[in-house]
Write a structure and sequence with these properties.
With about 450 residues, the chain is α/β, with parallel strands linked by helices. Helices cover about 45% and strands about 15% of the residues. Helix 3 runs antiparallel to helix 4, helix 5 runs antiparallel to helix 6 and helix 6 runs antiparallel to helix 15. It is flat, with a radius of gyration of 30 Å.
Length: about 450
């Protein structure tokens, strides 16, 4: 299949130029490329591996794969099979496998960086440290069970185990109090745009999707924009890169009181989308929202929107070109929220809005340099969270166990160590391996 200029076994870990031929007809070359032999266990899978580096034409790749499939000892790899073999060979743990998968799928800088932390083994090291702390507590308790009072080793040992368990519990609880930022960045920040009809929500979605906005480019307008109230009746979604953060933007139906059945369904979906979003942005028409009263300028928020606006809601006052600069200043000051004023139709102040909006997202969701460096473990999956929460329950059960029931206390510690071990795959987790590997590309 592979012929080199040398008439001897290939030298491991060295690229060699080669001719790739049909197994049944060596006079029929398929391509010229490079071959490298990785001798196990110094390979990705820990097994003997041969890599062929080909030209990238489809016909070449197809012909080589067809030729390889005729060899009786070869077959196409299943999805994620090479990575799975690396896992079973001890090259990677489960957090590294997930990090590698996230690295392949990363679309933004923040996703790439947290994936590199996991793929590089930093997350594994941190969880191993937590598990080692629990096992240290368990060793102390089992010493009491095995030797008892006769050996005079119990003095202070039980208290040391409790103190150590409290420290591990506090460390895990601190990791769990991350507002799910790791999970949100891995899967994307869900942003819901809402507001009254004709305030400019769909115009904002189209603006964010423009190549000149700095977000992920869109080749066409994502939403239909008309002067007819209620044009948007369903939820439109667009995936964007805003300031290096993955953002899934949802444009929702204008919220108002209506008797139209179809529009009412869209409005209810809009309300649900806002409640489920990680962050919401309310778009209001500046001329319609800022009103003059005997007591001075005031904001008039439609009653249908008031229940959806929370202290964390961001606000964009659109159509600022139809109001004076003083009105813009009054609106932002009266909003009592992070707010901007711009005109999506003329482009006035849209640059300031986009930069400020990206900064607001970074302040809320972006990871700091300590987290990105791998110095603290980052929870990027619900699976991790579930196991760590279980470990917390078992550790707390140990701390609640009286010293007279050290056997029961030891069992709680054992369960806690197993729960943390399941995060990195140190404990048998065959039931979840298929779910982890099946989403890899074929052969990875």
């Amino acid at each position: 299949m592979v012929r080199t200029s040398k008439k001897k076994d290939p030298e491991p870990w060295k690229m060699e130029r080669c001719r790739i031929v049909q197994p049944s007809n060596e006079d029929m070359p398929l391509d010229e490329g490079l071959a490298v032999y990785f001798r196990g266990p110094r390979s990705f899978t820990t097994e003997d591996v041969v890599e062929l580096h080909l030209h990238s034409g489809r016909a070449i790749i197809s012909s080589v794969l067809s030729a390889v499939s005729r060899l009786p000892f070869c077959r196409p790899a299943e999805a994620g099979e090479f990575t799975r073999r690396a896992f079973h060979g001890g090259r990677l743990d489960l957090t590294q496998v997930e990090g590698l998968k996230d690295l392949i799928n990363a679309e933004t800088e923040s996703q790439r960086r947290i994936a590199m932390v996991a793929a590089g083994g930093a997350v594994r090291a941190q969880f191993d440290e937590l598990r080692s702390g629990i096992i240290g507590c368990l060793a102390n308790i089992e010493a009491l069970i095995d030797f008892g009072e006769g050996e005079n080793i119990e003095g202070g040992v039980y208290d040391q185990a409790r103190s150590r368990a409290q420290d591990v519990l506090a460390a895990i609880q601190k990791h769990l109090q991350d507002n799910r930022r790791g999970e949100i960045i891995r899967s994307g920040v869900r942003l819901a745009i809402f507001g009254p009809p004709n305030a400019g929500k769909s115009s904002l979605l189209n603006f964010l999707g423009e190549p000149t906005s700095g977000a992920y480019p869109s080749l066409r307008e994502a939403a239909i924009v008309t002067s007819v109230p209620g044009t948007t009746r369903d939820i439109l979604e667009l995936s964007l890169d805003i300031g290096g953060l993955p953002v899934i933007v949802s444009d929702t139906a204008g919220v108002r009181v209506t008797d139209d059945l179809v529009e009412s369904i869209g409005i209810e979906r809009a309300r649900n989308a806002v409640r489920a979003a990680d962050v919401s942005l309310c778009v209001l028409s500046l001329p319609d929202t800022l009103v003059q009263t005997s007591e001075g300028p005031r904001l008039r928020i439609p009653s249908a929107l008031q229940s959806l606006i929370t202290p964390n809601t961001l606000i964009l006052f659109n159509k600022s070109d139809l109001a004076s600069p003083l009105a813009r200043d009054h609106a932002i000051k009266l909003a009592d929220h992070v707010a901007w004023a711009a005109s999506l139709s003329t482009g006035d102040s849209t640059g300031d809005f986009l930069s400020g909006f990206a900064e607001a997202l970074h302040d809320r969701f972006n990871l700091n340099e300590t987290e990105l460096s791998g110095k603290t473990p980052l929870i990027t999956r619900e699976r991790h969270r579930v196991h760590l929460e279980s470990a917390c329950r078992f550790l707390q059960a140990f701390l609640d166990t009286p010293s007279s029931d050290v056997v029961l206390g030891a069992e709680e510690l054992r369960y806690a160590a197993q729960a943390v071990g399941k995060v990195s795959g140190l404990i048998d987790v065959e039931d979840i391996l298929d779910a982890v590997f099946r989403d890899f590309c074929i052969g990875k």
